[in-house]
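Loading example: each entry is read as two labelled lines plus one structure line.
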Amino acid sequence: MSTTVVERVGSATLRQVEYVGALVIQIRNALGAMGKTLPFVGKRNRWRSAISQMLAVGVDAFPMVAVMAICAGFILAMQGASELRRFGAIQFVIDLVTIGFTRELGPLLTAIAVSGRSGSAFSAEIGSMVVTEEIDALRTMAIDPVEFVLAPKFLAALIVVPCLTIISNTCGILAGGLFMHFSVGMALSVYFQNVVHSMILRDVLTGLVKSLAFATIIVQVGCLEGFRVRGGPDAVGRSATSAVVKSTFLVILADVGFTAIFYLTGGS
Amino acid sequence: MTPAPQAPAIDPVISVNDVVVSYNGRRVLDGINLHIARGETMVLLGGSGSGKSTLLRQIIGLECPQSGQILVNGVDLAKSTPQDLKKVRRSIGVAFQNAALFNSLSVEDNVALPLREHTQLAESTIRLMTWMKLAVVGLGDAGKLSPQALSGGMKKRAAVARAISLDPEILVFDEPSAGLDPIVAAELDELILGLKRAFNMTVVVVTHEMASAFRIADRMAMLYKGSMLAVGTKEELQSNPHPRIRQFFDRIPDPIADAAGMDQYFQRYLEGSSV
């Protein structure tokens, strides 16, 4: 039976609303389970699980995040310099790179890297657990799968993604400095003096708040896609792809929201 | 199909009352009634698609029925509080068809998991209890191994060790002999019987392996296309004249719809290959 365009649009909209609702409920359950993951006050072995997730999400992602940030720093500095040079304002490349990275590029590049690496890994891991009945086994043992599987990943991401963001900012700004040094002969000490001058605490904090929100989106979407796997190994593969696509899209959507709030609250 | 009548068991630990389960409009369980007595071994029999695994998932509380009631130790699983459901789940040990061991943990950590999650015992005590459970199933030396290093039979045994780690009242097996050779399957049957005798557990087994079913069952329940055909002792089911039960026990295949067409196809194939 063929469906009208209105029916198709309607059912697609309902599916997305249901997805967002399921995501919100999962975030609420994960926040409730965080207490049992903390060291000293949580359940035994949860904190150990969180630490191993920090190594997987953070330490293993560090080379990729650093390289992406260095490349983006060079690109931003070069493109900015080629235009600003025409107005005799090449020194404003420093402001461009510093503000660009602390407000936007640092958190965004980090989120994209972590989404591709860890978001897909989470959904594949949990999807495999669904297919092999390991999630069912947890439930029959009266162990909450969100508490056992998701909460350690969530805590790890909340700690590690802001750290990666700071690394991303540092690498990007450093790349801009190297460009200015080799292109216009600016001394690195002068460059970094101007970086400190143009860096605003509000921008740094905004970037870190964004990184926390992006970490939440990446972990929750990755894990939700995994929990929703139905079928065999091909479904696991599809969930990994879906996790990366959806989390990247939602990260950018959230970034739009943050940017709008930033400017509406008087950011310059 | 009208469910077959059965005499209610004395002191039923599990009661399934008029349970109906549907998936996407298709009725998978149709008014199932079943009572499992404390300390007995109930084997759920049936062909593929008969609904026995669905019934098992209802009994262990992984899903809720559309209508009807499932009572475990008097607790209605669909209407219980989260605390009551947790208590019921701790009283049931489940060994899944593919073992469902966590590959990120060693065998002994898999078995110790319920103890670490639900007790405040010291780690040394947990390790001792874990070794004892592994020894009971014949895996006393395999604790440090990873699940990937185990054979199929060893994985099933490890799954049983994990299922009994909290000394549950009820032990549930989903296709315990699936994928095992006859010798290993027979060893697993003896393990199930030994556990039941030693710990006086109620055992529920889903299987279509007739040899295992006859070895371990006190009573059997036969399902067909979501309906309960009969419940009774091995002798009662063996002498039941219902055509589907006779077909299942005597291993008679369903007639092929187009037998003449199949014969012609094979004939042409053989003539073509001999040219």
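Chain A has a mean pLDDT of 92.
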